[in-house]
From TrEMBL:
Residues 767-836 form the Small-subunit processome Utp12 domain. The keyword Repeat applies. Pfam families: Utp12, WD40. This is PWP2 small subunit processome component.
Length: 922
């Protein structure tokens, strides 16, 4: 059993906080999700989570103009320089204070970071070889309060900064003689957005109270004059230098004042307010929370706290569109490069929407669980993952694309468990609202609702292998309820447990139900013998989780004392145990009075799952670690740290003494403004705090674990989201992308050196058909299996497609069949797992007016060989003609002509018969 599982994708969450960005072509959205970054491909309908993470939740992301580099900054100001091509971290940096916004210049040479009331301009990394990737160029002081937004002119000569002190500051990126800084007022609330007009110094500023100010400049961009060396200001006093360089950063300091700079030899840049507009004249909207401006089309998009957004055409302020897309606050707005798609992020509900405003339709609409996820289940084929959350929703995710395609909202309380039936088309869920519901994935509806005679809160769920029996355990009445899936009737109520039923599991080979309870027993119920108790297994502590091995020959039970016990269900004997309490390594919560080492003594595993081969078991609980144990050796094989996000509670083993005061930990101080009566401290043993409190820090934990039926991946529902770990790590970076010497001469040189793999890769990079055929046919046939095993994954599909096309036209059938056989034998499993990305099949119901009519016509034409019909007729006629010539050489005279006429008639009959046979196929 291999344990080289790597983080593959993050599901269940699409947006948390921060700013959205579009890719360079506008077909992908880059969204911060907690301390990770997800990329949603809108064209191919897929998602990908970058394999990088920060130490705390991400607040802002800045992308270079070519979208090759990204600067990701978290809540504390720690920044990562990430390559979006290689998905690798290139540099670490710390700004020492929370960063409000970050923006690259259009030419990509510099970027501006705003923190507190300072704007810092750095040299952009990658433009020249430097030891330090972040080199400070200038520091700009002007606003008196925190800065909020940034925008650049198109030629990167100037930038503008908005502030919470209701002022907007225009700074020069260079030492311009007529523009060093300029302060603009006119607003009565916080500046939300400030935007330059295209190829101009004209400005638009938007404030939180719904006010738009249009500013007109008397100078064009070409009118900016560089300051001569003799006009440079004198160095500032040493005391000021010491004050401004406390962080050890070097760079020129530009300190602005509230008035415009004095005139010298050249005329200074002046601004005047051209017009002023108001969004909330009728009082329908409250706070304006986000804004974005598309310069080529002059479209301004504004989002409000009520979930409404506006589209205006500037500078006339003509209303184009107004719509309510949510009932939550719009946190971020972004526009793609073409100006057709608008991205919206709502942090309250975890929503990510992409709206095409011209057709007034959704391009992308996703929402994760805005509360904790409690359970997950894989479909029998591993293509779908169902999750249930504390928000009462059941969501179904595509494991290949990572997107949710259906959400069921019939439950009115938290979901405690979900599972698939053996057919894979029915999802059954249990909830604390006292119902168990069955959902049909064909029609996307709730077709069965199971209830108990007396109200009960169901905490566990299991469905037998046939899909006919549905069982659920109650946590208040200590009973197990059995229903029939066909009729929906209650069949039996199983009593006998003296404590809450924590987990249920059906045997995969027999009709036996195993139930674990807090009464320190596991009971095996025989479904074929009047639902009687077959065996009772005594435990050393309260039972929390129970699961069968895939072959049904072993039973694993997790108990409250942190142990995992293994039982033989046929003989009711214990075969082994694993003490996993010390492997949990719990962190210390900020409100704990005891150390993490002492609190770990009361922790245990709450979820178990066998691997597909049954040799190992996956265990997780109230910890940031997931453990894999080898059952035969009864030892820990590997531990996975599911998160390094310090924004969650119980992440660190020791508390920071710098946060300790006479009152206690600073975490107990409520920083929000309000009329509360004090600090809201959760009760001991509570898994989550009061959701209505102003400051809520969730505790990291793993609520459910499942192995994929294929055994190639496993998933865990955690506080961070649905994490998927996989063995199939697809190679997303092609090193030959950086090679400029890919020429036919270099490819033939590789052939002469017998570097077959390099020659094939270079040939597909050059993508010339004749060259690819030359390279493949040069390869010795005995080397084909070795070469296929050494090919990168991204070239397997390309080579397989080329081989398939060559089989139709080339005469080297055996040679290309060897290629196809080797590729499918070595990469068949990986191709099957990713089959949804490069295969298409009709999935919608039949409709006579749909495109499937054309699809089926195409299938029929292929099956009938319409494209090859005339070739077949020609080959038949040609073969008969050759037979006639042979007969003519042997015979003479009139007999030769008669045979020729007979053969012609026979050939016509055979050709007509072949056509009739082809038509009879349909």
């Amino acid at each position: 059993m291999k344990f080289a599982y790597r983080f593959s994708n993050l599901l269940g969450a699409v947006y948390r906080q921060g700013n959205l960005n579009f890719s360079q072509d506008g077909n992908a959205v880059i969204s911060p999700v907690g301390n990770r970054v997800s990329v949603f491909d809108l064209k191919n309908n897929t998602s990908e989570t970058l394999p990088v993470s920060t130490t705390k939740n991400i607040t802002c992301v800045g992308l270079s103009p070519d979208r090759h580099l990204a600067i990701v900054v978290d809540e504390d100001g720690a920044a990562l320089l990430v390559s979006l091509i290689t998905r690798a971290v290139l540099h670490h940096f710390h700004f020492h204070k929370p960063v409000n916004s970050i923006r690259f210049s259009p030419d990509g040479r510099k970027f501006v970071v705003t923190k507190e009331n300072v704007a810092l301009m750095y040299h952009a990394p990658g433009k020249q070889r430097e030891f330090n990737a972040f080199v400070l160029d200038k520091s700009y002081y002007g606003p008196y309060d925190e800065t909020t937004c940034i925008d650049w002119t198109d030629d990167s000569k100037c930038f503008v900064v908005g502030s919470k002190d209701m002022s907007t500051w225009v700074f020069g990126a260079e030492r311009w003689a007529n523009l060093i800084y300029y302060s603009l007022g006119g607003h009565k609330d916080v500046i939300v957005g400030c935007f330059f007009e295209k190829d101009s110094l004209d400005l638009y500023t938007v404030s939180q109270d719904g006010t738009l100010c249009v500013w007109e400049s008397d100078t064009e961009l070409d009118g900016l004059v560089l300051m001569k060396s003799r006009d440079k200001p004198k160095p500032s006093r040493p005391a000021e230098e010491e004050e401004e360089r406390l962080e050890g950063e070097e760079g020129e300091v530009i300190r602005g004042k509230a008035e415009a700079p004095k005139e010298k030899n050249t005329k200074n840049v002046r601004y005047k307010q051209r017009s002023k507009h108001f969004f909330n004249k009728e009082g329908d909207f409250n706070n304006l929370t986000a804004a974005a401006y598309h310069k080529p089309t002059h479209i301004l998009v504004t989002g409000f706290a009520s979930g409404i957004f506006h589209l205006h055409e500037l500078p006339e302020f003509n209303l184009i569109h107004s719509l309510s897309i949510s009932d939550q606050r719009i946190s971020s707005v972004a526009i793609n490069s073409s100006g057709d798609w608008i991205g919206f992020g709502c942090s309250g509900m975890g929503q990510l929407l992409v709206w095409e405003w011209q057709s007034e339709s959704y391009v992308f609409k996703q929402q994760g669980h805005f509360n904790n996820m409690a359970s997950l289940a894989y479909s029998p084929d591993g293509q779908y993952i169902a999750t249930g959350g504390d928000d009462g929703k059941v969501k179904v995710w595509n494991s290949n694309s990572g997107l949710c395609f259906v959400t069921f909202t019939e439950h009115t309380s938290s979901i405690t468990n979900v599972t698939f039936t053996s057919s894979g088309f029915v999802i059954v869920s249990a909830s604390l609202d006292g119902t168990v519901r069955a959902f049909d994935l064909h029609r996307y509806r709730n077709f069965r609702t199971f209830t108990s005679p007396r109200p009960a809160q169901f905490s566990s769920l299991a469905v037998d292998k046939s899909g006919e029996l549905v069982s659920a355990g109650a946590q208040d009445s200590f009973e197990i309820f059995l229903w029939s899936m066909q009729t929906g009737r209650l069949l039996e109520v199983l009593g006998g447990h003296e404590g809450p039923v924590s987990c249920l599991c059906f045997s995969p080979v027999q009709s036996i139900l195993a139930s674990a309870s807090w009464d320190r027993t596991v009971r095996l119920w025989d479904m074929l013998d009047s639902w009687q108790v077959k065996e009772t297994l005594s435990l050393t502590s309260d039972g929390l989780s129970v699961t069968y091995r895939p072959d049904g020959q072993e039973l694993a039970v997790a108990t409250l004392n942190g142990e995992i016990c293994f039982w033989n269900p046929h003989t009711a004997t214990q075969t082994g145990s694993v003490a996993g309490r010390h492997d949990l390594e719990m962190g210390r919560k900020e409100t704990d009075k005891i150390t993490a080492k002492q609190s770990a003594k009361g922790k245990s595993f709450t979820s178990l799952c066998y691997s597909a081969d049954g040799e190992s078991i996956l265990a997780g609980g109230q910890s940031k670690f997931v453990c894999i144990y080898n059952i035969k050796e009864q030892m820990l094989m590997k531990k996975f740290e599911i998160s390094c996000n310090l924004s969650f509670d119980a992440m660190e083993e020791f508390l920071d003494r710098r946060k300790m005061t006479e009152f206690g930990s600073l975490a107990l101080v409520d920083e929000g403004a309000g009329d509360g009566e004090g600090v809201n401290i959760s009760l001991p043993g509570v898994r989550k705090g009061d959701m209505s409190s102003r400051h809520f820090k969730p505790e990291i934990r793993v609520s459910s674990l499942r192995f994929s039926p294929t055994g190639r991946s496993w998933a865990a529902t955690t506080t961070e989201g649905l994490l998927v770990y996989s063995l199939d790590g697809s190679m997303v970076f092609d090193p030959y992308d950086l090679d400029l010497d890919v020429t036919p001469a270099s490819i033939r040189k590789q052939l002469r050196l017998q570097e077959w793999v390099s020659a094939i890769v270079l040939a597909f990079r050059l993508n010339e058909k004749a060259l690819k055929q030359e390279v493949l046919e040069t390869v010795p046939h005995e080397q084909i299996p070795v070469i296929c095993g050494s090919l990168p994954d991204i070239y397997v599909e390309k080579l397989l497609g080329f081989v398939a096309a060559s089989l139709e036209k080339s005469g080297h059938l055996q040679f290309y069949m060897t290629w196809a056989q080797s590729l499918l034998m070595l990469h068949g499993q990986n191709l099957k797992n990713r089959s949804a990305t490069f295969t298409c099949a009709p999935t919608e119901p039949w409709h006579p007016n749909s495109n499937q009519v054309h699809y089926c016509k195409w299938v029929c034409s292929v099956y009938r060989c319409d494209f090859n019909m005339y070739n077949i007729r020609y080959a038949v006629a040609l073969s008969k003609q050759r037979g006639v010539k042979r007969a003519a050489e042997e015979d003479e005279g009139e007999e030769e002509e008669e045979e020729k006429d007979d053969d012609d008639g026979l050939s016509e009959e055979m050709s007509e018969a072949s056509i009739e046979d082809a038509e009879m196929v349909l």
